[in-house]
Design goal:
150 residues; alpha+beta; four-stranded antiparallel β-sheet; 4 helices; 4 strands
Amino acid sequence: MIKTAVFILLILLDLLTKFFIQNNLFLNQSIKINEYFELVYVQNFGVSFGLFSGYVSHWILILIALIVVILIFYLFIKSDKQLEKLAYFFVIIGALSNIIDRLINSYVVDFILLHYENFYWPAFNLADIYITIGIIMLIMSFFIKSKTVK
């Protein structure tokens, strides 16, 4: 029950922030928050960091992402480590949220822009943060012995 609520809450949080950005900023408009952080409205038609943008149909990207989510869900079910299961859980939430966004818009809305002086990290969104947290947790699970789930 709690997992389902967290699942829905995180997806809604991601989609609502994307909706807010789309409806309050113009495309490529940025709002400086501080010297390292800006809100920006970017439409990502590719995969991570905009790779393959314009070269692959959004339907192909959705299909590939769904296959990956199914594989990760299989790993989630098979895992007996709590940290590993939680890691897969976060990756699935992020991936599904970006899939939903791509289904709605045919692109993914990115809006978080981090930089230091003239060094810019590509814009990203909350779903990307969920995926990153999941991957970090997954790496940690490889090095940490955890209790098995019963």
